[in-house]
Amino acid sequence: xxxxxPSPSPTPAKKKKVRVPRVVNGVEQMVEIEVDDxxxxxxxxNDKHAVLNHRMTRVDGALKVSxxxxxxxxxxxxxxxxxxxxRCPHAHARLKTFDSSAASKIAxxxxxxxxxxxxxxxxxxxxxAVAAIxxxxxxxxxxxxxxxxxVLPHVVRxxxxxxxxxxxxxxxxxxxxxxxxxxxxQKADAAFKDCDAIIEAxxxxxxIHHACLETHGMVVDYSGGDSAIxxxxxxxxxxxxxxxxxALGLPQSAVTATVQHMGGGFGSKFGIGIEGLLACxxxxxxxxxxxxxxxxxxxxxxxxxxxxxxxxxxxxxxKDGTIAALQATQYRLGGxxxxxxxxxxxxxxxxxxxxxxxxxxxxxDSSIAMRAPGHPQASFAMESLVDELAYKxxxxxxxxxxxxxxxxxxxxxxxxxxxxxxxxxxxxxPGGGAGPLKRGIGCAVGTWGGGGNDQCKVxxxxxxxxxxxxxxxxxxxxxxxxxxxxxxxxEELGLQVPDVVDQxxxxxxxxxxxxxGSTTAASLAPSVKDAAYKARMAVAEKIAALFGNPKPEExxxxxxxxxxxxxxxxxxxxCAALPPAGITVRGEWRSDLQxxxxxxxxxxxxxxxxxxxxxxxxKMVQVxxxxxxxxxxxxxxxxxxxxxQSLGMALWEGRVMxxxxxxxxxxxFMDYKLAGSxxxxxxxxxxxxxxxxxxxxxxxxxxxxxxxxxxxxxVFNACGVRVRDLPITPDKILMALNGRKAA
Amino acid sequence: xxxxxxxGDGQTPSHDPSRRRFLKGxxxxxxxxxxxxxxxxxxEATESDAQAKGPRALSGTVPVVLDINGQKKTVQVExxxxxxxxxxNHLEPPITGAKxxxxxxxxxxxxxxxxxxxxxxxxxxxxxxxxxxxxxxxxLGTPEKLNAVQNAFVEHDALMCGFCTPGFVxxxxxxxxxxxxxxxxxxxxxxxxxxxxxxxYPRVFEAALAAAKAGANS
Lengths: 743, 218
Prior knowledge:
The complex is a heterodimer.
Chain A: E1 15-24, E2 27-36, H1 61-65, E3 81-87, E4 93-99, H2 101-105, E5 109-114, E6 119-120, E7 126-132, H3 135-144, E8 146-151, H4 158-161, E9 176-183, H5 185-191, E10 197-205, E11 217-221, E12 228-232, H6 241-248, E13 255-258, H7 273-286, E14 290-293, H8 296-302, E15 308-317, E16 323-335, E17 352-361, H9 375-392, H10 397-404, H11 408-421, E18 437-448, E19 458-462, E20 468-471, H12 481-492, E21 500-503, H13 520-543, E22 556-558, E23 561-564, E24 567-570, H14 571-575, E25 583-587, E26 598-609, E27 615-624, H15 632-651, E28 657-658, E29 663-664, E30 682-687, H16 707-719, H17 730-742
Parallel strand pairs in A: 3-14, 12-13, 16-17, 20-21, 27-30
Antiparallel strand pairs in A: 1-2, 3-7, 4-6, 4-8, 5-7, 9-17, 10-15, 11-12, 11-14, 15-16, 18-26, 19-20, 19-25, 22-23, 23-24, 26-27, 28-29
Helix pairs in contact in A: 6-7, 9-16, 12-13, 15-16
Chain B: E1 2-5, H1 19-35, H2 47-53, E2 62-68, E3 71-77, H3 83-90, E4 111-114, E5 117-120, E6 133-135, H4 137-140, H5 148-155, H6 165-178, H7 184-190, H8 201-214
Parallel strand pairs in B: 2-6
Antiparallel strand pairs in B: 2-3, 4-5, 4-6
């Protein structure tokens, strides 16, 4: 890799303070930083771009459709060993004896190591790892290890964990931990007196699996020398080398992490992880490269999950549609972890509210970040409650939302999506209409931050033959990072996307933030823009003589041509006048090129068979803003993807635990139901072009949030009963219908 | 107090009746018996051996000649090795377009075309693929020369992370040979054995229909 030379910075720039999100383990926290208050051009009007805000096919598309893209799973090195993990079969147990003698005797087994754990607090907790010459033999070795456990009492259901005398997940600690409260309980309580209608209800969402098709893991290329390369399936190239170096006993500078293509993360792939540490230890011990990728079963039981939720809500509304009071007790169900849940009343304006938030622990693996951590859970509960209030006072649910949403963006988006789905077609009487197939429409809204931070350092090199390279260590999760990175440079230099080459996914390149919290675009794009602008100025300066020395900013780069003082030459012609090594510049983040705060609304139409309880999604519409859409084609794909993952959560997905055994009953795609081709409704992703903000804002997480509520509300509108416990499976609908008839 | 082994083989579903699952479970002693009529076992493992000495771990590999993307490849594998793992872990150079995702025939990411039919390569043993024409996604087109389905996938952005994509591409390419002018409903039906987690389905359907229109077989 060529040495990159940062450009000498000009006069010391003015500084300014900005608040930015920093992502730790996929969860964003706000911090204040100081950045250069520098100039440079802005993005310009969103509808005036030559390359950006168009429909660009992704630059790695041809590699991915032909099997040529090499993922971490595809790496195979000479003498490479395969790692496998032995997991504890009990929800809570202590290690008594460990015998790996039979495993070690199997031909082809090179190493068996124990994890340092002596007490296991969930079924699936890693006990040991093996390395062998084939994955099949590694599996044999795992089976041949004999472990004796002292089995301890466990609890895996929230309702059981909260009871007095429940088994303790961690000794000496309560299963219930208060995590925060907000509002005035007395005022909120008093406010109910002035309300015309009150709804009190409980909402639940189960734990959801990321189900990344490429499981967690890495290939450690280390053979006992003084350096190592880590091929990692990760959302954070730079989150790997430090821990890997420590595990291998090497200086961090001797360890390179690389990820060229990544088979899905959704928030679950930050840091080296237990599997990465075990891979490094096996590699260090065997002095051979080790590939340790979780099996699908491992992935379900130990690779993290979206925390479940249990929300007890009470809200009061006035006749004019104003939500005046709200009380919420929010339990985050994160197993060993703390879980996450946005605070109620979510995006709604409620004059007097009070909420208490708790983590309720069980003997399950720790939840971790998953696409918009905490938001789908909170949005589902609040949007269901809002819907119930609207129906209770007989107000149009769209009008009711507008009454209680401050932000004008939601108002225009609600109107737009209502038109797109045909809101007037909704069931005028929930559950009404002839025949067993009932159709209904529902809606909901969501929000996300999506702002950037100052971690991206981007180098642009222009060579004498006119070739352009943009280099930064960031990663492309399939979100289209590569494509917009090239596009920004191409547009600035008056070129097209294929004229620019990228180098990404390598920790020896310029630093970049991990891809969490939808912070990648708003962190990376400004740095790329800054680098591209500096490259344009540097080229202009070097070749100005060709045009009789006009000022660099007077030289125009457009359509592959360079024009100055009335004369025009091709890009290739002017680049021939560059110095032999070409030019290389480094771009830094500019806070003025990005912002935070996106809005989205979702409308869903479903058909409910009231005889079988089956829900068939018919149509989904989502309107999403993001400031400047960098690439319309990939952005629409993200919106589709958000809707589909939300659809899965609403209707099918959820971890199922056996309370007695403490085991997951559906740890495979056979039993954990993902959306499939037969269930996909008509989908309409709409980019909100009425958002005129000329800034980049991340939106990928926002689009998973609102559809849960929209679908649940559509089910109510269709069949007249409300299921407050996701997923909305046929049994729950039939039970609710039955209960209504009995009542 | 309980004495138990780990749940390392926990992903083995008891209700999966496939032959390969059975063979994988019993190891080479059983597998050797099952394939002895066709294959020579490299090593000592035979059924009578296993019976004489009681249960014990055996090892051994067999040479297998596979016809992959029009080329004959010889590879040495244990009889229990799946076609998928043979492609990925044993062939030189590796063929990695087919992805290992569920390893139990539920997701379709490992789909290859076997004698014209899309199949899950994680459910087929390499020794059972002998004498059959195997086409992987690499055999359908290259980045420089994509087939009509691959090209339509790029044009319609029918991929995000791309890990399921080779499976969809092989499934749809094989299907369009059988049915060159499918309806949307037929496309959905054709790829119901393939999962995508990123949520690319609407555009997969678009791409399949566009490829059909463009003449997938031209």
